[in-house]
């Protein structure tokens, strides 16, 4: 629904209503296969690079490595740049599946009164990948990679830094200081914070990725920004925020709880 809000210019309720009425409940799951298959590998890339970056820059000779070193004035800088570095390499993995997901999610098949101009019909994930690759090769699978880098690289640093800081906060309510509760709170809040900051760039990215390659509406990143602002005002750049934040808290809480569990598990081996 977030993608349809951003690209078709509707409210969340209208997007849900139109999708259900004209395409049925199955339409809510369009394009989920490819990103679902890539969730594990992409998170492995992100946390693998982040963890190794921190291990390298935080190592002090023969001393034991600690992920959190509050007494080190360089610690917060390392956490931020470690997240940015991890975010860069994660985009390399996630750009093609995200492009395919967005194209399929915006494919209304002209069943409703809304649709993307010059919409191309794809028969599922692999048909979309095959046709994109056949038409434009590898670069065709990386359409929108620049705005995706702008979206994910700096906010990945904010994401890791906010998580690590929130995890060491002492809450006034004692029950909130349980390690698992802290992981849930820190992971969920880090996800909401990073996504709420980056929604404007996400709108531009989504619109560029669904734009027709043969008859493009936008000339590039800045032209998309200008046309969107001129047509819809600043409100264009907040579309999808409610849906994103509602998803971000539980999704990122689960990611960090799993991350911490696996770290503890492998450290005991």
Structure description:
The chain is mainly alpha-helical and 269 residues long. Helix 3 packs antiparallel against helix 4, helix 4 packs across helix 5 and helix 4 crosses helix 6. It starts with a helix and ends with a helix.
Descriptive terms for the model:
269 residues, 70% helix, 9 helices, mainly alpha
Shape: globular
Write the H/E string, N to C. HHHHHHHHH
Individual helix count: 9
Mean pLDDT: 83
* Main sheet record: none
What's the Cα radius of gyration? 20 Å
Q: Indicate the percent of residues in helices.
A: 55-70%
Protein name: Solute carrier family 25 member 45 isoform X3
Subcellular location: Mitochondrion membrane
Organism: Nicrophorus vespilloides (Boreal carrion beetle)
Membrane topology: Multi-pass membrane protein
């Amino acid at each position: 629904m977030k993608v349809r809000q951003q690209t078709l210019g509707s409210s969340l309720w209208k997007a849900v209503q139109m999708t259900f009425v004209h395409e049925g409940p199955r339409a809510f799951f369009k394009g989920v296969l490819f990103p679902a298959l890539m969730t594990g590998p992409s998170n492995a890339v992100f946390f693998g690079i982040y963890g190794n970056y921190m291990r390298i820059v935080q190592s002090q000779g023969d001393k034991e490595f600690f992920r959190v070193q509050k007494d080190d004035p360089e610690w917060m800088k390392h956490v931020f740049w470690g997240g940015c570095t991890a975010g860069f390499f994660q985009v390399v993995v996630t750009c093609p599946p995200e492009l395919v997901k967005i194209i399929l999610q915006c494919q209304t098949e002209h069943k409703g009164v809304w649709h993307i101009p010059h919409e191309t019909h794809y028969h599922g994930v692999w048909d979309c990948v095959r046709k994109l690759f056949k038409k434009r090769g590898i670069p065709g699978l990386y359409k929108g990679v620049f705005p995706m880098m702008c979206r994910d690289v700096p906010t990945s640093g904010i994401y890791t830094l906010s998580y690590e800081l929130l995890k060491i906060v002492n809450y006034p309510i004692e029950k909130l200081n349980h390690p698992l509760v802290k992981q849930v709170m820190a992971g969920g809040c880090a996800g909401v914070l990073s996504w709420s900051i980056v929604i404007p760039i996400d709108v531009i990215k989504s619109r560029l990725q669904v734009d027709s390659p043969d008859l493009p509406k936008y000339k590039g990143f800045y032209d998309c920004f200008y046309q969107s602002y001129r047509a819809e005002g600043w409100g264009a750049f907040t579309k999808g925020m409610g849906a994103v934040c509602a998803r971000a808290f539980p999704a990122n809480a689960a990611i960090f709880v799993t991350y911490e569990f696996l770290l503890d598990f492998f450290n005991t081996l």
